[in-house]
Specification:
single chain, alpha/beta, four-stranded antiparallel beta sheet, 10 helices
Length: about 250
């Protein structure tokens, strides 16, 4: 079954067309990569389907139309995302950072927690940390983590609500080769465990090694899609990254 379907997604900023009729599907249990040169519209696409920029087109999650929903409503429907900056609360432990993300309280429930110091339920946080292999780090402060671990905490935070699909916006940014490889292994484990993912990243080694399918954007339009091997050999993709002269040398 298809977990996420985007049809004809378009975004314009004044006279600039950032996305033009982009179609993309993320089937259940798969990791789909979205790549392209700088300015291709990758982050804009995530912003559009998660409701953070106004867009045209249709976005469905497991057949349910999300197109008219606000960002928080899309998130509660099962569409989670991460951000390029892995902002954590530095005065909270890793477990507490995730527990905060699980709370969807009424005003009265929040007031009771403040007045009586009732601890949030950390079961979902523990499960999410276990998925990314950081269960032993629940009691640490963010300052005690490596950059790669901080990125994994960001992924875990998105997983606390047990979403149907997680959109990852450049999770490998700032990581060295070893950290990126570890991140890829963890992402693959999460997907194999049943959570579909859409991955945006500039680390081609990561994307080509872990994704089941890849969609390529250039100037806001889809120019190619297919398996990692098909995309790697696609002339339009190589030209988008290297130019026509570079494509002649590579292909």
């Amino acid at each position: 079954m298809t977990a996420l379907t985007a049809q004809g997604v378009s975004v314009s900023f004044g006279g600039v067309h950032a996305l033009v009729d982009v179609d993309l599907e993320v089937p259940d249990g798969t990791l789909v990569g979205l790549i392209g040169p700088n300015g291709a519209g990758k982050t804009t696409f995530i912003d559009a389907i998660s409701g953070f920029v106004r867009s045209r087109g249709r976005v469905e999650l497991a057949g349910r139309d999300l197109s008219r929903l606000a960002p928080h409503q899309r998130a509660r429907s099962g569409l989670a995302r991460t951000w390029q900056a892995s902002e954590l609360f530095d005065d909270l432990t890793v477990g507490e950072n995730l527990a905060v993300a699980t709370e969807h309280q009424s005003v009265w429930a929040a007031a009771r927690e403040v007045l009586w110091k009732a601890p949030p339920n950390g079961a979902a946080a523990r499960d999410a940390l276990a998925l990314v292999g950081l269960e032993a780090s629940a009691g640490k402060l963010p300052a005690q983590l490596s950059q790669g671990e901080r990125k994994l905490v960001g992924v875990a935070r998105a997983l606390t609500a047990q979403p149907r699909v997680v959109c990852l916006d450049e999770p490998a940014a700032g990581l060295d080769a070893a950290e990126s490889e570890q991140l890829g292994r963890r992402l693959r484990q999460v997907v194999d465990g049943g959570t579909a993912m859409l991955l945006v990243d500039h680390d081609m080694s990561l994307v080509l090694s872990v994704c089941d399918r890849i969609v390529v954007l250039e100037f806001g339009k889809v120019i190619a899609s297919g398996s990692p091997d098909e995309v790697r050999r696609n002339r339009r993709v190589v030209e988008a990254y290297l130019g026509s002269a570079g494509a002649e040398r590579v292909l």
